[in-house]
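Researcher: Structure for this, please.
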Amino acid sequence: MRIDLHCHSTASDGTDTPAELVRNASAAGLDVVALTDHDTTRGHAEAVAALPPGLTLVTGAELSCRVDGIGMHLLAYLFDPEEPALLAERELVRDDRVPRARGMIARLNELGVPVTWEQVARIAGEGSVGRPHVATALVELGVVPTVNDAFTGQWLADGGRAHVEKHETDPFEAIRLVKGAGGVTVFAHPGASKRGRTVPESVIGELAAAGLDGIEVDHMDHDADTRARLRGLAAELGLLVTGSSDYHGSRKTCRLGEYTTDPEVYGEITRRATGAFPVPGTGGA
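Model: Predicted structure, token format:
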């Protein structure tokens, strides 16, 4: 089985619609794909309706969190999307995205970059506006060559010249909320140091004690040494190890299925989840 547990659609900051995502996942030879848009489940229904035969969909979201001043992302799988407490927190995070984007645009203007809200809104379309949309605007303007090059201290990385903070959930609270909604939690790309400061291993240990289920080890932002270190940490803490593409369509260079999750780990995730179940494809339109 080929299992990719971290993908994005136009419901947040990917360039594939949810329907296109599942069709492309099937064409890429995946057996299981997770739709984990940022702080939203809005793309799930479209993905389910278009799900090709032979492909299973794992519903989820990537939650924006912050601990000790450090931003981090928490992948939440197979939770009940209508559970009131988690839904309210996701809406709070999502509603803060527009003011934040406008704030980043203002800072870029102060730095002499002629980006506009209209440009960023056009790029975001119906998705939840975020830093990748602002980064894409910088690419369009020729300020940086790629989206990844915008995520530096010079521009949009945490603490960067044009960075603006938004409401982000305490990860200990996020774990509690996801568990309360019957879901499973995995710390996304915990060693992605190019994005800014990373969460110390001591805090990952505390998160594990609070109920964190796993860490994403095999990821494009982790080199071989980082992956080896994180595997050792996962073994020490009794955490599941996942691998994923973090696919964003044409917005990033990663390919569907570039990194995958072991079938036994996937099976354990599905066994732990009680809020929702994987959806087998039966031939969508």
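Researcher: Any notable elements?
Model: The mean pLDDT is 95. The CA atoms of residues 19 and 47 lie 5 Å apart.
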